[in-house]
Amino acid sequence: MKFIATTLLCLTLFLLLTSWGFYAHKQINENAVYTLPTSLARFYKKHLKTITEKAVDADKRCYIDTLEGPRHYIDLDKYDEGTDSIPIHWSKAVAKFTERKLLANGMVPWQIWRTYLNLVNVLKERDYNRIIQFSADLGHYVADAHVPLHTTSNYNGQFSDQIGIHAFWETRLPEMFAHEYDYFVGAATYINDPLQLGWQIIKESNALVDSVLHIEKELSNTIKKADQKSYITRNNQLTLNYSDTYATSYHRALNGMVERRFRSSIYYVGSLLYSAWIDAGQPNLVREAGSTEPVEDKIEYTDKKILGREEWH
């Protein structure tokens, strides 16, 4: 029995190690491609499978790269003077707080900007393999910035007796209800200031933190403990997770919050891909669209221990 309990615990922990969940990240990247204009969409649709699969590469790198973890979050509550006290430009933020503090508190808005610049550069060079990789990574970081619990040090409810809420909000709920979401978000538009957009997104996410935690706390006080968790089959594995009934109640109480952040992720990923192409001079990628798929460099992360925070990946 002890072995079985340990195995189930390990499987449950594995579910926590994906931001937005592998399924949701892939859905966001895939649907972002459908927002692009025809002149650009032809290239991305040709490589849709690869861009979709690579949507989770950034999470996999958390198992092999000690520098990867902070790129997925930012603890805004660690800045005593408030969010507005943080310079949006990295160099100015370093001058004010030191690079060590910034890395300790997370850097997702700056990572969005850096990845965007990398994408612009490889678009100019028509380095097709790297275009695909940076496009997939950009989609991942933008999606992570949309998750409220990626903007607080109480990222898994560990300070409010709500351990597990991170994966509950960003993995369990999308996997249960994404089939009900409206994926039509309109056409991608040009973003004048991608760095400012990154900060806008994380501020919007941070404004939702209290609701994410408070609503679940209130719900837990109205539903019996025995009805909150159950064993479910996920990826052919039996795991202890939030019950379908409890998840449905939480989903309804959030009143569409997860879907709105999901849709916003799709729209802004598509818009940043489009903007990068514009800023790169609108290179003609049509010829490449007829070539073969690039060789995919797989990231081996199985049997490895995650480097950094566990619950928010």
If you had to describe this structure to a student in words, what would you say it looks like?
The protein is globular and about 60 Å long. The protein contains 15 helices and 2 strands. Helices cover 56% and strands 4% of the residues. It has one domain (2-289): P1 Nuclease, CATH 1.10.575.10. Mean pLDDT is 89; it is low at 1-17. Helix 12 packs across helix 13 (244-254). Strands 1-2 form a two-stranded antiparallel sheet. It starts with a helix and ends in a 24-residue tail after the last helix. With 313 residues, it is mainly α.
SSE diagram, text form:
Elements: H1 2-15, H2 21-33, H3 38-46, H4 48-53, H5 57-61, H6 90-97, H7 99-105, H8 108-125, H9 128-145, H10 165-177, H11 194-206, H12 209-220, E1 229-234, E2 237-242, H13 244-254, H14 257-279, H15 286-289
Helix pairs in contact: 2-9, 2-10, 2-14, 6-7, 8-9, 8-11, 8-14, 9-14, 10-13, 12-13
List the main descriptive attributes of the protein structure presented here:
globular; 313 residues; P1 Nuclease
